[in-house]
Specification:
The structure holds two protein chains of two kinds. In chain A, 43% of the residues lie in helices and 20% in strands. By secondary structure, chain A is an alpha/beta fold. Chain A starts with a strand and ends with a helix. Chain B has three domains: 3-123, 434 Repressor (Amino-terminal Domain), CATH 1.10.260.40; 132-202; 307-433, Beta-Lactamase, CATH 3.30.450. Chain B has helices at residues 7-18, 22-29, 33-40, 48-58, 62-66, 71-83, 94-100, 102-131, 133-158, 164-198, 205-215, 242-261, 264-274, 278-285, 289-296, 341-347; strands at 309-314, 319-323, 353-359, 367-377, 386-395, 406-408. Classes of the chains: A alpha/beta, B alpha+beta.
Chain lengths: 122, 433
């Protein structure tokens, strides 16, 4: 069965590049660009994995992640956080909020692919 | 207290430094020990030949005894040494240095002040880099665009047999993003340029405010009439940063409020009758004691018979206003001496505290200090009360007749008092004195 990833990111050209490389790798890719409705999108689409940007319009990625982790049925969902700031503080915030992995921009396609494959498991 | 009344104190200080007994020095100078005793307690004026003989006996320049070195300058020199320990500066001879080379000493102290101010600026700028929301947004924009370019370029360069539609699409994206990157980088440069402009001056806000108040003699005639707008006294030439202007505006508003509570003519009458007595002033005006203290420190020199100093601190003990006195220097940065009545008052809000003090290393120049603490603002029933304490400092002309004053310091690092229970860090003078 094809695995599904939901990319929550508001930068259209980053979304397009990620969509392309993951699609080539055999994933079904859905996208969402708004922080305020992100949790709802996860609930409707039920992805196997989420790629979540920190700086989203409407609501921060950290808050979205906290709400996901607070819900029983979504607490174990693998989430890869993307951020443009690599400070120790941000990393700590991401870990506390419950991120499975954390990646700083600008990342390479190979890194994203490797992280996603690893997080999805066998 | 004028300079020449302190010749005796300086003689006593130099004699103690030289390890001489009063009798030894008296014999060398050819006078009686009891006469020297009177001189040392500033009860006899001396000058001319006797001063030169005593100076020779002490092996110092006569001018060192007649003029002395300003206590404030000495404190600043000690601060300079404290800031750069291990330079081998002869701390035990600091008074001799300041006395013999006043110009060089002033230059050194001034250079140190400048370093402190610059370090403060560097800290402010570092803070700003870390927390500036505009800068963070600009950098985020640039990093996002770079990320898109990197991913897109990697796909174009590394994908075999990329369909022409995709190829076209990614080329378009790349073109679009490269433009955005150029714009973002340009915006960032423009922002950084204008940010540098906004802080032309390299002085800290606190320093600008102190220079501004000192230049005005801590007195603002334009705020003495009822209903005066405190903003009119703001001097944008001297207060270049937004932070300095906003702090100064707050201080001037308090000045105007104090002036409304205790009009200048009333204050002048009370001072003429009772001297600079904060209690008499508060009673006559029916005002707060704290307001009377601040008001005394804001009176012009033709009203005051003597110079007065003032220190104000908030509930955290941080000094929020400094009007130093020659006899009672205040630390330009950081905390004061925990023994000051200012902090004693803070621990007992509402209870006025009066103390005779003498600052370490400044023997013979005692001061009287009055302090009181109370609420700084009405916070209502929610949240903690915001406290504020003020301390008025006056030269003490009757010190000789008075009980021994309490020994305090400027700030721990340059304070020679050994075994002080209030000490929070070691003194660099501990072995020097």
């Amino acid at each position: 069965m094809t695995k599904q990833v939901l990319v929550i990111e508001d930068e259209p050209n980053i979304v397009e590049a990620i969509r392309f490389i993951l699609h080539r790798d055999g994933w079904r890719v859905d996208t969402h660009a708004d922080g305020a409705t992100a949790v709802e999108a996860v609930r409707t689409q039920r992805p196997d994995l989420v790629i979540l940007d920190v700086m989203l319009p409407g609501r921060s990625g950290f808050e979205v992640l906290r709400e996901l982790r607070g819900a029983d049925d979504l607490a174990a969902l693998p989430v890869l956080m993307l951020t443009a700031r690599g400070q120790a503080k941000d990393r700590e915030t991401a870990e506390l909020a419950g991120a499975s992995r954390y990646m700083t921009k600008p990342f390479s396609n190979a890194d994203v692919l490797a992280a996603v494959r690893e997080m999805a498991g066998p | 207290m004028s300079r020449d009344t302190l010749v005796g104190s300086r003689i006593r200080e130099r004699r103690a430094l030289a390890g001489l007994r009063q009798a030894d020095l008296a014999r060398r100078a050819g006078i009686s020990a009891s006469y020297l005793n009177l001189i040392e307690h500033n009860r006899r004026r001396i000058g001319g030949k006797l001063l030169v003989r005593i100076a020779e006996a002490l092996e110092v320049e006569p001018s060192l005894l007649s003029e002395g070195a300003e206590a404030a300058l000495l404190a600043r020199l000690r601060e300079a040494v404290a800031a750069q320990p291990g330079t081998g500066a002869e701390l035990d001879r600091v008074e001799e240095f300041a006395g013999r080379f006043p110009g060089w000493a002033e230059l050194l102290a001034e250079a140190r002040r400048r370093i402190d101010a610059l370090e403060d600026t560097v800290e402010t700028l570092t803070d700003r880099l870390a927390h500036d929301p505009h800068l963070a947004a600009s950098l985020h924009e640039v990093l996002s665009t770079v990320t898109a370019i990197r991913s897109t370029a990697a796909i174009l360069a590394g994908t075999d047999a990329l369909e022409p539609e995709w190829q076209d699409r990614f080329h378009r994206n790349l073109d679009e993003d490269s433009r955005r990157l150029a714009e973002g980088a340009q915006a960032l440069v423009t922002y950084l340029d204008s940010a540098a402009d906004a802080r032309r001056s390299l002085t800290s806000p606190q320093e600008e405010i102190e220079a501004f108040f000192a230049a005005r003699g801590f007195h603002f005639p334009e705020l003495e009439r009822p209903g005066a707008d405190p903003e009119v006294a703001l001097d944008p030439e001297k207060l270049t940063s937004e932070a300095a202007r906003s702090i100064a505006a707050r201080l001037l508003r308090r000045y105007a409020d104090d002036a409304a509570a205790i009009p200048l003519d009333l204050a002048a009458r009370v001072v003429a009758d009772h001297g600079p007595d904060p209690v008499a002033l508060a009673r006559t005006a029916g005002a707060d004691l704290s307001c009377a203290m601040r008001r005394l420190a804001a009176l012009p020199p033709d009203v005051l018979p003597t110079r007065v100093g003032l220190a104000v601190c908030d509930g955290a003990g941080a000094l929020t206003f400094r009007k130093p006195l020659d006899a009672f220097p205040l630390p330009p940065f950081g905390g004061g001496c925990a023994l000051w009545p200012l902090f004693e008052a803070l621990a007992r809000p509402g209870q006025p505290v009066a103390r005779r003090l003498v600052q370490a290393g400044d023997e013979g120049r005692p001061v009287r200090a009055f302090a009181v603490a109370g609420p700084a603002a009405l916070t209502g029933f929610d949240g903690p009360p915001l406290m504020q304490a003020q301390m008025l400092v006056l030269p003490d002309p009757e010190a000789e007749a008075a009980p021994a004053p309490l020994a305090v310091g400027v700030t721990c690092r340059i304070c020679p008092r050994a075994a002080c229970p209030a000490r929070r860090e070691p003194s660099i003078l501990a072995t020097g004195f």
